[in-house]
Amino acid sequence: ILCCRGGVSGLTTSLVLAQKGGFDITLIAQHLPGDTAPEYTSPWAGANFLPSKRVRVSAQGSKESEYDMLTFPYLWELAQTAPEAGVQVTPVMLWNRKKDVDSHRHWATELHSDRPWFKDMLPEFRDLRRDELTDEYDSGVTFKSVGIDVDVYLLYLLRKLKESGVVVKRATIGHILDAATMHESQRPAEALINCTGLLASKLGGVQDTSVYPVRGQLIVARGSVWGLITTSGTDDGPTDTMYVMPRGKGDLVDEIVIGGSYQKHDANGEIDSALSERMMKRAIALGPDLLSGKDGGELEVLRHTAGLRPVRDAGIRLEKESVSGVTVVHNYGHGGYGYQSSYGCALAVHKLLADPENGRSWWSWLNPLNYLLAKRA
């Protein structure tokens, strides 16, 4: 098996295949954990678990919701048992305004709906009381979720890959079939896994023109924050978003991620200083009870970053096809949800490869109840 690209999807898929056994895997990538190239999107993510309404996602039972439902227990267990993974349990508050129902946050309407499908999945889920909201907000919810330190987590996945016997090589390809001859064994690969993210829009043999970048700008500051706080909208323009969250583990939680933006078809890597000012103003407005600098002082800005989300109009593409007689399993188009869907998508890839005759019926297998029963069998 040859897996293309070293982002969170490629790393997780390769690791799941290796741990389940039966596959000789080589992963090739132009960029690997530790790199900071703009087109290498995984290191730039804020990274948390917040199920949202994406394209074709409106209720429990959709493909993307199933991927999320399979990934959350995996990340939750890492937070409890593997501190070296960089995954931490964090409380969450979502604040909603009625006037945002048709705003730019339409992509997150399920997240801010009155009856989200995930309310029975996330620990301690409840509605916020009126005294827990400011006058600006009409409703809200709180629950426990996870946050991910992406630098730590990507290196953790890479380390686990190597421990599992996966060969990792740096390489570039111009066509998906270029990868077929790059397996460490020097034998032709029996299957290729396409986790190329944004590259899928121009990679030969794929060239999916529905894939495009959505820019997100962040501030990383030193300080403390109650948990992950996000709102249904802002009054600062159609592409501005508002969220803050901690980054770190245990006593090392001294960094805050402040966002953000959702700018479609924008791959500009330069920092928009006016946007940064608006982001900081919105964060400070939360008040010292929820967010403050070190020892209660002012926030210390450590860096400004701008990253890209690999969005696909029709949502995640996860399917198998033959390209010039070579089996290719596609796993791309995750948008801003690559981390929180990564494990579920990897399980779906495994199913397509491990059960080729019944690959068309993998969807029924992905039902979490079926998956748990299969694990016990």
From TrEMBL:
Q: Which SUPFAM superfamilies match?
A: FAD-linked reductases, C-terminal domain, Nucleotide-binding domain
Cofactor(s) listed in the protein's UniProt record? FAD
Binding sites annotated in the UniProt record for FAD: 41-42, 196
Q: Which GO terms describe its biological process?
A: D-amino acid catabolic process
Q: Which GO terms describe its cellular component?
A: cytoplasm
Citing just one GO molecular function, the answer is: FAD binding
Gene3D superfamilies (alphabetical):
D-Amino Acid Oxidase, subunit A, domain 2, NAD(P)-binding Rossmann-like Domain
**What keywords tag this UniProt record?**
FAD, Flavoprotein, Oxidoreductase
Protein name (Swiss-Prot/TrEMBL):
D-amino-acid oxidase
